[in-house]
Design brief:
By secondary structure, this protein is α/β, with parallel strands linked by helices. The protein is about 45% helix and about 20% strand.
């Protein structure tokens, strides 16, 4: 599907500008290939920038990024002195971005960098407010431990917004800076950033599209704590749902207590 999109809309690309944000925390094994891959796939777009946000890494990530900054003129490296979280790194990049068109991609090589262009093409051609890369996992790419709670969260989120959500928290997406900034007050600093912005935009009837993309096994180790972060995800889904669709969140709870009372 990515190749079809690229061949179909490539003629529109020269009129486009974008800021690509790459959050990075201890990704020395993947960050170089991701930055070089994004740089190569965007070579046909005249106006773009890559913003790599080093989120307090303790490995060689920062030195690799600074080395790449000397080689790639469109690369800007920002650093947090201490680890502040995935969402905080994205917020830093969004605030510094020059373009209203924001693309984000993780630094662990799970997403093909060429898919950034495909999402941008759909974003440009159809005027969507956000385009999300819906992950199609290769064998061994995803954690079976997190599969069940993620499925429950996705189904519950679909109930809240009353729409299908092929991928709730993909780390590959394109959206408008001006819209994302409206939700900065509720967007968390942790991994739930992507979950929350998905619900916030869909709950406010923005045009959100999903495009299937390949999802690969990550390099390095995951920073997600399965039990702790799953509970936080549920908490944020409920909180965000109460903001934008309180009836659909509270009605099942009210019915449950009503049934218990009866």
């Amino acid at each position: 599907s990515v190749n079809i999109l690229r061949s179909r809309i490539v003629s529109n690309l020269p009129m486009y500008d974008v800021s690509i944000i790459v959050p990075c925390f201890n990704e020395e094994n993947g960050i170089r290939d991701v930055i070089l891959g994004v740089d190569a796939t965007l070579i046909q777009i005249p106006s773009w920038e890559i913003i790599a946000v080093n989120d307090g890494s303790t490995d060689r990530s920062e030195s690799i990024l600074l080395e790449l900054q000397g080689q790639i003129s469109n690369l800007q490296v920002l650093s947090h002195e201490v680890n502040r979280g995935y969402g905080a790194a994205l917020k830093t990049g969004i605030q510094k971005a020059r373009s209203d068109s924001i693309a984000i991609i993780d630094a662990d090589k799970t997403y093909p960098t060429g898919a950034v262009t495909a999402l941008l093409e759909l974003f440009l051609e159809q005027g969507a407010d956000m385009v999300v890369g819906a992950r199609q996992s290769t064998p061994g790419a995803g954690s079976q431990l997190r599969a069940i709670p993620k499925w429950i969260m996705r189904r519950y989120s679909e109930w809240i917004v009353n729409k299908p959500i092929p991928d709730l928290n993909s780390g590959l997406r394109v959206f408008r800076k001006s819209i994302a900034q409206r939700f900065f007050g509720i967007l968390p600093n942790g991994f739930s950033f992507t979950t929350t912005i998905t619900l916030a935009m869909m709950g406010n009837f923005y045009d959100v599209r999903f495009v299937p993309v390949e999802y690969r096994k990550r390099v390095g180790y995951s920073k997600i704590r399965p039990l702790h972060d799953t509970l936080r995800f549920f908490n944020l889904i409920i909180r965000t749902g109460i903001y934008f669709a309180p009836y659909r969140v509270l009605a099942p709870i009210a019915l449950l207590f009503g049934a218990l009372s009866f």
